[in-house]
Structure formats: C-alpha cells, structure tokens
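Same chain as my last thread, 316 residues:
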Amino acid sequence: MNFTRRRGAIAFFITLGALLVGVAVTLNIGWIVLNERKVALAVLGVILFALLIAGLVLNTVFLVREVRRNERQDSFLNAVTHELKTPIASIRLYLETLQRRPLEEDQRQQFYASMLADSDRLLATVEQVLKAGQLGQRDRQQNRTIVEMQPLVEECIAVALQRHHLPPDAILLEPIPGDVRLNVRGIAEDLRTAILNLLDNAVKYSPDGVDVHCTLSITNYTNVTLRITDTGVGLPVDQLKRIFRRFYRVPGRSMSRIKGTGLGLFLVRNIARQHGGDVLASSPGLNEGTTVTLTLPLAGSRQQLTAKKPSRRVHE
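reply #2:
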C-alpha cells in the first residue's frame, strides 16, 4: 500500500511540474508577443520566466528525490527490524524451551549452536549499522597500517564459511602464483568489513547452491584486485551501479525474498574509496552469477599517497 502511494505521489509531482512548466512557457511566449516592440520588457520577461521554469523543475526534482529517499529509508527500517527481530525471537524460543523441560545433551548442544549463530547474525547487523555511521570520522583516516591482503581474505572466507555453515569448498581462494605479498595501507577492520560484506552477498544471492571463487592479483602494477565471483541470481545491467547506493535493494520477487539492510555494498564502496580504490560489479544477466571487483592501491603506490577524500554522502 505504501509503495503504491509513493508511486502515486511521484507521478503527481512529475505531472504537476510538467503542467506548471507548460503554463510558464505559454505565459512567456505571450509576454514576448505582447511586448515584442519593447525590447527591455521582452528581455526582462524572458529572464524572469526562465528563472521561474528553472525553479519549478528544481522543485519537482527535489520532491521526487525526497519521496524516493523516504521510500529507501522505510525499506531500510523494515529490513533492520526484521534482521534484529528474527534472531532475538529465535534465541528467546530456544531459551524458553531449555527452561521449561529437560533435554538430551545432544539436543542442548544443537540449541546452543543455533543460539550462537543467531547471536552472530544479530551482532553482524548491529555492526553494519554502526559502521555506516563511523565511516565519516576523520580520526579513522589516520590509523592506517600495512595490511597483507591474502591472510585477510583467507580469514574472511573462514568466517563466512562458519557463519553460513558451509563446506570448505563452497568458497575458494585461487592460489597466488609466485611468492608475492599483496600489501595495502589501510584500516584492517574496515577492509575486513568490506570483504565480509562481499562474501556474505555472494552467499546470500546463491539460493540454489554456493559456489564462490575469489582471486587476488596485481593490476596495472599499482593495484591489488580482489574478484569475488558467484553462480547466483545475477543482476540486470541497469542495476550494476545502483546496488552501491545506501539503502538500495534490487526490486523483484526473487530479490525481495533475500533479506538485508541495503547497507552492505554501500559500505564496501565507501571503504574502497576512502582507501583510494573502488568497487565494480558485473554480471552476464539474471541467473548467471555476479562478479564484484574490489580494487585497492598497493602500499606505497602513487594512488595510495593521493587517496580520495571520504565522500560527503557518508554523512547523509
């Protein structure tokens, strides 16, 4: 119902803006015709009506953007509420069962394992929300160290396998040829957050079986590139850039069934850019998998020394 109302509001504002622009143009033409012999008045009228049209267009664009932003924020709140409520309800149910009746030791251990998994899910959601607010802090940009990417990626893969209860071959890191150390200068905690978000996405969007391949390499002699490829639901071309917006969720029934906050890829993009890198997504199409490429400057490279400043949109 809310979605329909917002769509109606967007259509109303666009229609109203178009009508007002049409009225302004008509009045402008009429003014010029009536005052064609008075050059000064005609020029003044053209300038005033041009300003009026610009104001109407900007106002309409602003209103439509606000409606869409509110829609994304509502979706985010609904998603976060679900991500918080579901594990809490599950933990409560297990605790009530343990409290009410005696259980066999094996069943008790299963309950404990399930509660630990739910608490990890709860903690991950809370950390994701908190991380979105911490990215804009300036003092974080000064606490940078040399981070070796291969051990970090291996650690994140181990966490993802445990978190999603997957076999060891579900997520594989291709061996790096030669004795090469891929180091970047950055905040290890933030880079861990970015890699874990990419791995979690690859797992979540592979509902028919997880088969994720990761590769680390040097590109252009100055960058460390991490590619994470899955065989999941894939993405249409028009969504490849939008997925990195804050609160954005890909529309469609198959996508809406997969829960999330819409913050994961937004965090990845901002962390990458704060480290002087970037992140891109590619996909052959729906149901053909997705590849996400995270690029970071090698430690000591010129790109690293001239890393991009944090985007202002982080503070929004």
